[in-house]
Amino acid sequence: MTGNKKGLILLVEDDPMDAELALNAFRETHLDNEVRVVETGEEALDYLLGRGDYADRTAHPLPDYILLDLKLPGLSGLEVLKILKTTPGIKRIPVIILTSSQEESDRALGYDYGVNSYLVKPLSFYGFLEVIQNLCAYWLTLNVPPPVPVAMEG
């Protein structure tokens, strides 16, 4: 896929196999964007809030998009989403839930908490590839991102 908007994608995924599947799908899609991977909800918030190992914003810039799994150890993806979408400076970052959960309650809470899109992980690589291709086509080519908050402009 050519014509992608440059930008950083934060992939929040605790399963190494699913993370590698996503990264392989991005490569197959010829995604030019940088993808950073964190494995827990706590690590995602540390990254997004610039805490601990992620305090250096030059080395760890805010992402332009977040792909968020729900079933994370410790702090769940829904808890991360709820905090993210109520925190000035990061609440406008588009969040796409990418999960195996087809639970109606997870979907409802995701949208209640402000998710921008909810995608269910396909079981096959080719199904996953199709989801990633469509995701890239929409979010990285067609979508007009929200404006950067004044405090974040630099």
A few lines on this structure:
The protein is an alpha/beta fold and 154 residues long.
Structure description:
This protein is of the alpha/beta class and 154 residues long. It has five helices and five strands. It has a single domain (8-142), classed as Response regulator (Rossmann fold, 3-Layer(aba) Sandwich). Helix content is 37%, strand content 15%. Strands 2-1-3-4-5 form a five-stranded parallel β-sheet. The chain starts with 7 loop residues before the first strand and ends in a 12-residue tail after the last helix.
The string of secondary-structure elements, in order, is EHEHEHEHEH
Q: Largest beta sheet: what is the strand line-up?
A: 2-1-3-4-5
Counted by DSSP, the helix tally is 5
Question: Ranges with pLDDT <50 over ≥5 residues?
Answer: none
Please indicate the percent range of residues in DSSP E strands (runs of 2 or more): 5-15%
- State the shape: globular
Straight-line N-to-C gap: 30 Å
> What is Rg?
15 Å
CATH fold name, please?
Rossmann fold
Q: How many strands in all?
A: 5
Mean pLDDT: 87
User: Could you say which structural class the secondary elements and strand pairing correspond to?
Assistant: alpha/beta
Annotated CATH homologous superfamily: Response regulator
- Number of spatially distinct domains: 1
The CATH class assignment is Alpha Beta
Oligomeric state of the chains in view: single chain
The description of the largest β-sheet is:
5 strands, parallel
Keywords: Phosphoprotein
Domain Response regulatory: 8-136
Modified residues (4-aspartylphosphate): 69
Protein name: Response regulator receiver domain-containing protein
